[in-house]
Write a structure and sequence with these properties.
This protein is α+β, with helices and mostly antiparallel strands. The chain is about 55% helix and about 10% strand. It contains 4 helices and 5 strands, in the order ββαβααββα. Helix 2 packs parallel to helix 4.
């Protein structure tokens, strides 16, 4: 399986597998990658509602593609792209931009305690989801090696 660029669209192609599930997964992944490219979501947490397809469907598509992939470099790129799904949180609302600041750079008037608590919960949930997805996709890598 390899990513190729054709007329500004990314396609995931697999010469060996004509399996319908893999083909469907590649189109879902393509749609997600185009969403990431068009929306620049590098340092943001985003509500799941903004995803082009439901998060669970995209997670399964990545799992299928990773398990079907034979090229280690491409598999690694798929895992990296798939882990971006951890940034998408249910019920988040407005995007949250993550910016590192030193204690001296923090505004004197902080946001309310409830806001800070909410952000802390979102960050913990994001980290937990990242670990869960890492485990899931690593199992798919092992599956692809067998």
């Amino acid at each position: 399986m390899r990513l190729t660029q054709n007329a500004e669209r990314l396609y995931v192609l697999d010469n060996d597998a004509a399996d319908e599930n893999v083909v469907r997964a590649t189109y879902l992944i393509d749609e997600f990658l185009m969403y990431l490219k068009e929306n620049g979501v590098a340092n943001e947490l985003i509500d799941e509602l903004e995803l082009p397809k439901p998060k669970g469907i995209l997670v399964e598509a990545f799992r299928i593609a990773i398990a079907a992939e034979r090229d280690p470099q491409m598999r690694s790129l798929l895992v990296k792209a798939a882990l971006a799904l951890a940034k998408f949180r249910p019920g988040l609302g407005n995007r949250v931009r993550l910016v590192a600041v030193t204690p001296e750079g923090r505004p004197e008037k902080c946001r309310s305690r409830s806001f800070e608590r909410r952000i802390k919960q979102v960050l913990i949930a994001t980290a937990t989801d990242h670990l869960r997805l890492t485990d899931l996709f690593q199992r798919a890598v092992v599956q692809s090696l067998n």
